[in-house]
Write a structure and sequence with these properties.
The protein is of the alpha/beta class. The protein is built from six helices and eight strands.
Length: about 200
């Protein structure tokens, strides 16, 4: 059974308000905090205003690619419950977790089985292991069958070009499901109609 939904790449107040006040809100909302190559990147000054909101029971996630101390210090007092870390070594992950007292989503980018097995280095550090496609700034998929032999005890999240119509096929998987590109229109902006369809579909499952 799906554990919950994460909507990632939110960058404007209208969309954020809509998601937070939806009848079936997601468990997580993600904000791209330091990766400027992404079209979903949110500048620090905008992020401060965006997060100044009652997030209710939703977990806010800061998506960070190999963050340096400067950005971590800038965001340390923001309303983030989790740091989602890409390209961060286990030792550095533990250092960030201890210093900033945040829950951690360790992102593993997957092309083959050897990539999947890297979770073992993070499973004792991170609250959630995210298995994602190889494209940081693009929605690139991977073969989800590579995850079939993971231990059931592992708290797993999957991302990588997942579409709304894929959700029913994942209903028997104990994953958190992370969507971003699949909720956007042809101009790369979040589509509220697609978000509504996703949240209603997930609620039925």
């Amino acid at each position: 059974m799906i554990k919950g939904i994460k909507i990632c790449g939110i960058s404007d107040p209208k969309t954020l308000n809509y998601i937070i006040n939806h009848a079936y809100p997601p468990k997580f909302i993600g904000f791209v905090t330091n990766f400027k190559k992404s079209k979903r990147f949110v500048h620090y000054s905008i992020l401060k205003k965006l997060l100044n909101i009652d997030k209710k029971n939703i977990n806010f996630v800061s998506v960070l690619v190999n963050p340096n101390d400067k950005i971590l210090e800038k965001i340390k007092d923001m309303k983030f419950d989790y740091y989602q870390l890409y390209n961060v070594a286990p030792e550095r992950t533990m250092e960030i977790k201890r210093k900033y007292k945040k829950k951690i989503i360790s992102a593993i980018t997957v092309f083959n089985k050897e990539d999947v097995d890297r979770y073992k280095k993070y499973q004792k550090i991170s609250e959630i292991i995210l298995f994602d496609g190889k494209g940081y700034e693009k929605s690139i998929g991977f073969d989800h069958k590579l995850l079939n032999n993971l231990p059931s005890s592992l708290n797993k999240m999957i991302a990588g070009n997942i579409k709304i119509d894929d959700i029913p096929n994942l209903k028997n998987k104990e994953y958190f499901i992370d969507l971003s590109g699949g909720l956007e229109n042809n101009h790369g902006k979040k589509d509220i109609k697609k978000i509504n369809k996703l949240l209603n579909s997930a609620a039925k499952i």
